[in-house]
Amino acid sequence: MSPFTMMPLLLPLIGGILILMARPAGLQTQRVLNLILVSLLVGISLVSFNLASTGIQQVVLLGNWQAPFGIVVVLDRLSALMLLLTALLALGALWYAIRTDTDKQGQHFHVLFQLQLFGLNGAFMTGDVFNLFVFFEVLLLASYGLLLHGGGRLRTRAGLHYVVINLVGSTLFLFAVGTLYGILGTLNIADMAVAVQNVPAEDQGIVATAAVLLLVVFGIKAAMFPLYLWLPGAYAYTSAPVAALFAIMTKVGLYSIIRVHGTVFSESAGDLAFVHVQWVLLLGLITLALAALGVLAARALRRQVAYLILASVATLMVSIGINNQAALTATFYYLVHSTLLGAAMFLVADVILHSRGIYADSFTKAIPVDRPVLVGGVFMLLAIALTGMPPLSGFFGKVMILNAALQHAWVAAIFSVVLIAGLIMIIAVCRSGSLLFYSVQRDKSQKGAPLNSSSFVAVIMLMLVSPLMVIFAKPLNEMSTQISAQLYDQQAYINAVMETRSYGGTEK
Hints:
- The protein is an all-alpha fold.
- The chain has one domain.
- 71% of the residues lie in helices and 2% in strands.
- It has 21 helices and two strands.
- The protein has a two-stranded antiparallel sheet.
- Helix 7 (189-195) packs across helix 21 and helix 12 runs antiparallel to helix 13.
């Protein structure tokens, strides 16, 4: 075990405590400390990613308790990718929050930011379903505070919906976990994968029901139909850097489906194999169709971007539902693209909102934005990427997904929904760009805020991910293939967790 294995968990937890203790020193001290911590997290995540690239799962037995009796933390290629993605996204969101003074709008922003990272990283690294629930609650509690940071009527209303739906999800999570524990006798993911192979025929219906219930819980986190209605309001009305950070939140649900269902209900699960797959594919297609209509019907840019995020999540659901290694490879490529580019689009929407004065981000004729060529150019590139138009990374990701679907029984439905939804979104964002940058009025009495160049750096850095993903498409595809291949080798994961000895223990 490398000493770096636990650092992505420990650093934000300790960082949150340090920032809380530093509050008497003032906001500037908290800012500097948070930036240092997040920058360190990026470096540690890079080291962890390099460590995981060897293909060896790093397993930590907390408390030195042998699996499956103790808490297990696992670092493999997928968890390392999610850790690095979270750290990069956090750095961009934090820089924007500081340079726009968003962190001044309420209390404890920087403490909550670190606790959010702790919950996210814990969810990506845990090897135990109950502790996945614990980390879900940590990141949700932090997200409640971040979502409501700054207050306001619309933000409070959206926050209430978000809290209620996630409380329902947490309750269902406990029901599902209790049912699975009652039948399987374990909640360690690797041990569950072994136990599910030996479930008696009379108990298989109960386990399948619990698996579907667990899928509902993860679907709430991922904003899957019909449980997606919280997302547009929550993402549209919170502050821009928080919305940007939340671009990774829906991916936690998708990650959980891949990790838990993909390991426990894999091909080796017998009659319970892939009990979740058709539901993921069907609901993903429905979610994608409704998200495209939401993008078209939106009357303000932030809400439209929220539906674009929902569409990207739905596309990932479709890819997961196709259920082959090529589709899983495409999933990881598209996941990186959609997370970082979606976050950049939220930040651009905030720039446009402040530049248009009283007209904010509504799709109405308004005063021109400051430096329209720069802002409009970035908006155009992000719109091309997020709607899947060539030659940027969104197009490559969708081609990979559709190529993986060629041999699937639902190939006609997948192609139809993905392509038609993409066309609808292209039409919608073209109309939005025309209204925001060309349909302007010369009202001398109204004046928006000038472009904050230092904060716009975060937007540019996130936007550059798309062309870089095209330039380095081959090595990124190879990396995604290695991740999917490791996930398809469930026995290696099981062996790594179950055969790791506690200190002082004996080998078999």
